[in-house]
Protein: Transcriptional regulator, AraC family
Organism: Lunatimonas lonarensis
Amino acid sequence: MHNLTFFPVHPSLRPYVSGYMLFEHDFLVPDRPIFSPKGTAALTIPIDVSEGNFLAYPTPLDRHYFEAGVPLLFGQMSRVGYASTLGRFKLFIIVLTPTGLFHFLGRPVDKLTDKIVDLEQLGLSGVKEQLRTLFASSQCPKGWAMGLDALLSDWFLRRGAQKQHLDVSSICDEIIRLKGNLSLDGQLCGGRVSKRTFQIHFKQQVGISPKLFCRIVRFNALIDAMHAAEKFDLLELVVAHGYTDRSHLHKDFKDFSALTPRQYLRTHFEINQRVERVLVKNRGRFSNDS
């Protein structure tokens, strides 16, 4: 059984949260699926995970085991990760916007890039207990989504949006709209800041550099296009997605999936593509509605 269900968030949360996802899968044989960067941070709540399953990130030696009801915070990811799975795998995921983690924590997030941490390590034991209570009180995914809307709305209302003289969220939206093909060499923010200042603010608010964020967005747009086409020509994809040549395209595949394009499609494509399609679809809708 394999299921991926998306739940929208309350409109007031759209600047911070892209949506909620319920991922369910029964792995009948041992598997080692990859998970590639999506351009966002996330809070993951294990609902029902068989004993011994873990995530290996950012290296194969860094193992993160699941405990039912104990949330894990995934900082911005810049590289491919692996899971070791057998049996039941059921997760509820709070997918943040590119700048959502910055507003959630109220401080720069670049120190959390490529990290998976317990909320207690961030001084958020109260939020951790609220999440555990919410998911223990009901077995209804829609109920979880409604409860999260209330919990997160209260959290962001009390914390308030982080006041910055440079808010990069609109630039993130533009990068996503252009599928990663946005030149960052021209006038940024109407020429109000230098390129260096912009890069510093972007990394503090998103967790990675604007150039790397563009690469990740472009990579996910690429795999979505590969899936949508009955047949595809790599040279056409190179041109369509702004790569300089095939080796440039292959480098992104190796960096973000550790595979060649054809290996990725054969072995690890389905769930990564379905997640990215949900994120892209709803990012665009949320950006237009905001």
Confidence is low (pLDDT under 50) at residues 283-290.
